[in-house]
Amino acid sequence: MQVITEESEVTLTKQAKRNANGIGNIRKRADGRWEARYCVGFDPKTGALIRKSVYCKTQKEARQKLTQAMAEIDDGSYLDPCSVKFGDWLDLWLETYVSPTVKPYTTDSYTNICNRYLKPYLGRYKLSQLSALPIQKMYNELQQEHKLSAKTVKNIHGVLHRALTQAVKLQMIRTNPSDLCDLPKVTRKEIQPMEQDDITAFLRVIRGHKYERLYAVTLFTGMRQGEVLGLTWDCVDFQRCTLTVSKQLQKTKKVGGEYTLVSTKSGKSRIITVAPSVMGFLREEKRWQEQMQILAGSAWDNPWNLVFTNELGRHLVHFTVYKHFKEIVREIGMPKERFHDLRHSYAVVSIENGDDMKTVQTNLGHATSSFTLDVYGHVSQRMHQQSAERMERFIQSVTG
């Protein structure tokens, strides 16, 4: 390894050029910066030396950068610095690696994060020069000045990390700088399942409501909103009392975005064996739908064969279903209840009534039982009381 540190550039002889791979020099430029230049090989077409340069504020920094580059050339680990700007890389990454492989809703979500946060803060940096410091500053500012939640910051980090990981795979950068960043701690929101009295009040209020059967089926199966709205009749087995949950109705996040049927959140199908009463709700829905189809005539339009539709057979709208739900829970004195809490209520009722954690996990479609236990391990007040009563009976039996 040869380092030439004279400020004037060294002219290599033909013999030196043949052995010039790894030779470098340092010089001070007219603009005051120090330039470290080194050779990384030869152009296979012309035989000319391929030179690379890095620019530094001090001679010491230039010498360090040159030494590092030459050592990497010698051991074969050298990676050509990428001059692509991070903002341009995000566009290419979204188009090439995100859009073709994920759901439209996810693509829109990633695009929104890139355009709203990553490009304004980091887009001007060259991909090879992006470090942990500006990334960390972005996270801090988003949380402290823009008051974004820890979960939102973590979601932004997830998109950034994935984009940079792809750049590492393509050898555009050596390491992922976001690995070195500290993320805010995410505090999971406390779930608010309905107790037995709440469920009784809820069922009383929804009686006769146009979404009565939709809400009841959700409550007694634990399906997510998109899953119950995307349930199709071919996935309902009245003989076996089972529902196959294989897709969800999802709307892209773009303004005026379209609804579409996509795979479940986990990407896997699951079969739920449901209570006979649930099948009763679905039979009632089928009879109602058949009546609506007769009344609508040629205007009937249910190409996806959906279970829950409007009077013309078209899919329901997430926000409309949610808005009516919020009106109902306000009426029973539970204004903070979310539609997703119907799913939580199902899980807690299942555990209270003796279902093992593996069964609850399978019915909910969670990836692991540990996740299910983590979410529902706190149990309900009723279970706490029952536990205390059992312990009291035991104490009486051993002390009597």
Mean pLDDT equals 87
Low-confidence stretches: 1-22
Structural class: alpha+beta
Helix content: 40-55%
Main beta sheet strand tally, sense and closure: 4 strands, mixed
Radius of gyration: 31 Å
User: How many strand units?
Assistant: 9
Shape: elongated
What percent strand?
5-15%
Give the end-to-end Cα distance, rounded to a whole number of Å: 88 Å
Could you give the order of the helices and strands? EHEEEHHHHHHHHEEEEEHHHHHH
SS element count, helices? 15
Strand order across the biggest sheet? Answer: 1-2-3-4
List the helices and strands and how they pair.
Blueprint: E1 3-4, H1 14-18, E2 24-28, E3 34-42, E4 49-56, H2 59-75, H3 86-98, H4 104-122, H5 132-144, H6 150-169, H7 196-206, H8 212-221, H9 225-229, E5 236-237, E6 242-245, E7 247-251, E8 259-263, E9 270-273, H10 276-296, H11 318-331, H12 340-352, H13 357-364, H14 369-376, H15 381-399
Parallel strand pairs: 1-2
Antiparallel strand pairs: 2-3, 3-4, 5-6, 6-9, 7-8
Helix pairs in contact: 3-4, 8-10, 8-12, 13-14
Defining key terms:
four-stranded mixed beta sheet; three-stranded antiparallel beta sheet; 400 residues; disordered N terminus; alpha+beta
Structure report:
With 400 residues, the protein is of the alpha+beta class. It contains 15 helices and nine strands. The chain has helices spanning 14-18, 59-75, 86-98, 104-122, 132-144, 150-169, 196-206, 212-221, 225-229, 276-296, 318-331, 340-352, 357-364, 369-376, 381-399, and strands spanning 3-4, 24-28, 34-42, 49-56, 236-237, 242-245, 247-251, 259-263, 270-273. The strands form three sheets. The protein has a four-stranded mixed β-sheet with strand order 1-2-3-4, covered by helices on one side. A three-stranded antiparallel β-sheet has the order 5-6-9, with no helix packed on it. A two-stranded antiparallel ribbon has the order 7-8. Helix 3 (86-98) packs antiparallel against helix 4. Mean pLDDT is 87; it is low at 1-22.
